[in-house]
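Re-run with default settings, no changes from the original entry. Doing this only to confirm the output is reproducible before filing.
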Amino acid sequence: MPPVKPPQPNPSRTAPPSRPFGRALLWPALLVVFGALVLHNTFDSTEPDAKPEAPPSAMAPPTPDAPTATPTRAPSLPRSAPRRISIPEIAVDAPFTPLTLGASGQLNAPPAGDTNLVGWYRDGAAPGERGASIIAGHVDTKTGPAVFVQLDKLRPGSDIHITRADGRVVTFRVDSVETFSKANFPSKRVYADTASPQLRVITCGGEYDRKARDYKDNVVVFAHLDSSRNSY
């Protein structure tokens, strides 16, 4: 993998003011690992014996401050973890669980035993914070359809509401819903840092390859922060 230039510090975040130097240098590499995992290892399938494939050995690093299709219409907020997601258009109402990297260097997927659970990559941007916040969920599990089974039904203009730990409800407006082949996944576009609060919602899609025991595609929702309000 070619050398990776770390993203510029983000003064708007309220995370601890000083990060260990080593962690700052590792951040782009962690995004690369995360990208590989979402391609092949985040979601269970309905196959009883399905096992995730290993991620690709090479993945292009993200590019900071990639241009976005639609500029944000709401200012960024201080960092606060998400607690619940609501997407009325596709009947989603689910809690969050934080996602972390496991001992193997891959992101731990949301527990497959709970079909109504969404994961948030907690070392990335929080929803409403400057940057691209990454959330992921199962399309199905061994027991049947899961939380994001209808994610591909969203359209530009759809709203995604996320309640945060600080009591704010942030609403993201969908810009596009796209399906990408896992073999040619645009990791730079999906995982790149952004200058405004953005959201990426990811699940599996397309045909199920029984030989590979994996879905052939990923569905990715691109959205921007439209508004925020106090839930109290």
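The radius of gyration is 17 Å. The CA atoms of residues 41 and 150 lie 20 Å apart.
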